[in-house]
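Encode chain A's predicted structure.
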Amino acid sequence: MGLTQAIGLDVTGETIVPLSRPTPATLIGSGKVNEIAAGARGLEPEVIVVNAQLSPVQQRNLERAWNTKVLDRTALILEIFGERAQTREGRLQAELAHLTWQRSRLVRSWTHLERQRGGFGFLGGPGETQIETDRRLIGERIGKIKRELTEVARTRGLHRSARKRVPYPIVALVGYTNAGKSTLFNTLTKAQVLAKDLLFATLDPTMRGLKLPDGRDVILSDTVGFIADLPHELIAAFRATLEEVLEADVVLHIRDAAHEETEAQRSDVLQVLAELGVEADGERPILEVLNKIDLLDAEDRRTLLARAKRGGALAISALTGDGLPEMLARIGEALGAGETVYRLRLDPADGAGLAWAYKHGRVVSRRDRAEGPSLTVAVDPADIERFLARFGDSIRIEPAIRRAS
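Encoded structure for chain A:
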């Protein structure tokens, strides 16, 4: 239901079909096919959506039996992605996913591609253009898009390298679609990213700077939402976007705590993350954030808060701001888990050394004395060697706190 609403379809009828074993020709049994056909004659729908993956033969047979256009789950998701993508990268990725899926269903001609709607024309409508092509031409287009996306990935890699030189840690928001990631992103960064009660409201990656309570500057990244049974074509096509998750120093798994299927959604997200190489028990910290607690009644909210505390999760409301200070503090703790903290005493005239310490470490505290400034500096593992090389010979450095990595 959520997918159809996301593309603006009005649902006029709904049927649940128990399926013990799929029928090769039509997926569902002939009796149900005839029953749905009878209902379709009365409702005269423009399209019938099957919440499952159909083979080309199954789709064709159902369209003949029901005398209307039939979309399966993958086609509907691709239509949403085609309509929502705003940037050049997003449009390329959506088109690549569509072509990869469509190529397996072609015999000699391509379907209508409707340019005016912004989608891929599965749903039909005004302004269509019929493009006659074959597998070779589609293959050439796929190759061209992949080359362009390779260039996009290279540019994104250069941007990541530039960020590492700054360097600012990256905090990536991931989660099931419509879990409230963009609302949280907007609340934290005062941005104006599209945040609606729709599936896949965000497709293109967005990044903004954010200052944590400990004074640390980070980059917050909003990513595309995941969904159950996400087509493999989409995972492959959006890999360049999802690389931001792979590069993140901390991952925030945003969950819709008020959703009745929140546990199933959690499993779906963790599965997609695992496919991307981000394991829940890996080296990269993953903080579980239970969002939308403002939608719970008092009793459910108390139960959730107690469960979150026991499990190490965070309970927040991106809309009202409840729980956000604790969440930001936990992000700072996660980022600082691998740091080593040193006490550094500098000569009063060593202005260059003072500037270097600020640039390559995180100054936790500073006391200015007549004999020179005294700093407590948290140093990232990657910078410890050069930090010691810069100050080790002439300045006494005393390890203050060594945190577990």
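The mean pLDDT is 79.
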